[in-house]
Amino acid sequence: VHRSLAMRFTATWCGYCPQLSTALKGINNFTEDHCVVLEFHNGDEFSVKYDSNHDLASKLMVEFRNTSLPYAIFSLALGIDTRESYEIQSIVKDILTQNPAKTGIKARSSISGDKLLVNATVKASSAGTYDLGFAVIKDDCIPSDPRNATEAEYDNAVLGITGNYYAMSTDGSFSLEANGEKEAEFTWTSPIVSTADIEDCSIVLFTLTKAGNKTIIDNIAEFEIGESVDYRYN
User: Fold this and answer.
1) Which pLDDT score, from 0 to 100, does residue 162 have?
2) Measured between alpha carbons, how far is 134 from 31 in angstroms, rounded to an integer?
3) Structure pTM?
4) Which of 53, 73, 178, 205 is 20 to 30 A from 105 via CA?
């Protein structure tokens, strides 16, 4: 089953960001079932460091030459600042039809102390070069000082992600023949793994490939921490 990915830039201080939140909450059931949203916070308490000069959101903003919020990148091929549900629905439908998924993902996860272990397998329906990424996201992120926030809580906040979240990696990509499979393992260490907050977190796995000269997200799998997901076929 093909699912698309939306990478959204947001911030607790952004007065316009709730408009995009409303648009994403207003999408129809089909779009919701076929789209996973990752929210990258910029310059607030939920932002995650990328390097000494950037958090994850600002790194994406540099890569896609965008400096404004709110903004969302769909499948790494299209960036928009729309705040209309119907436009998002149209974009997701176009992604699903124009670049049919070539990969499926199955995975299982387990917890050991403060470590999250994920074993994943990618299967390809046609030969090609692919990459696999991993992220942990959290719902119900409540600002410590509500007076400085424009929303009461924030969902889908990225807590950690592999470095290939905006382009295929040079050392981790792999080739598969039709019906070929590739196994991979991820380990994520964080104090949150051993706390009750882990119940608000989930795992997102995504495959990447090329469409012409552009890197795109080929498919997505999302599941709860401590659980597993199998291949899903149309």
Assistant:
1) 95
2) 22
3) 0.93
4) 73
